[in-house]
Every structure is written in structure tokens, then in C-alpha cells.
Amino acid sequence: MTETLFCYACRTHHPRELMHRFHTRHGLRWRCRRSIEAARYSIAERDAFGRLQTEINRARAEQTAGRPFIPLLARRLQR
């Protein structure tokens, strides 16, 4: 299994090889190449990227919400 890191720009996890560290006013943060490249485009294209990422995140949240709830103790016993 590959190691994943959380991208603060698109708020999802990506494989480590697609990530870069960025200095922010809050310290070092991880950011994916896709969001870095999207930031280089015009304002309209960046807004389109943001809307697309929002839709992706919403779809994932709905998919996750549809899963049955398994209590922590039961998940530990499944291992």
C-alpha cells in the first residue's frame, strides 16, 4: 500500500510522489501537483478547478455517508 498525504488545497489524500511541501504562514503544508498547476492558470480557470474539486469532494462525502456505521470496537475486532 502506498503512503498518502493530505493536500490542504483540494482537501483530499494523494500518493506521496504527487505531493510537494509548501511554505505557508502557518508552516509547511503538503500540496498536490494538480492544485499547483491549476494555480498557474487564469482566475476563471482556477475558479473552474475549485468548482470541480468541490463536486468531487461532495460526491466522496455522499458516498462515505452511504456506508454503514461500524463502531470502533467492531472495526478493531475485524482486523
In short:
This protein is of the alpha+beta class and 79 residues long.
Could you please describe the fold and organization of this structure?
By secondary structure, the protein is of the alpha+beta class. It has one domain (4-64). The chain has 3 helices and 4 strands. The strands form 2 sheets. The protein has a two-stranded antiparallel sheet. A hairpin with a 4-residue loop joins strand 1 (4-7) and strand 2. The radius of gyration is 16 Å and the shape is extended. The two termini are 16 Å apart.
Give the tags.
alpha+beta, extended, 79 residues
Describe the protein's topology.
Elements: E1 4-7, E2 12-15, E3 19-24, E4 27-32, H1 33-39, H2 43-65, H3 72-78
Antiparallel strand pairs: 1-2, 3-4
Tell me, rounded to a whole number, the average pLDDT. Answer: 86
Biggest beta-sheet profile: 2 strands, antiparallel
Low-confidence stretches: none
Q: If strands are numbered along the chain, what order do they take across the biggest sheet?
A: 1-2
Alpha-carbon distance between the two ends = 16 Å
Total strands: 4
Order of secondary-structure elements? EEEEHHH
Principal-axes geometry comes out as extended
> Helix amount, in percent?
40-55%
Please indicate the percent range of residues in DSSP E strands (runs of 2 or more): 25-35%
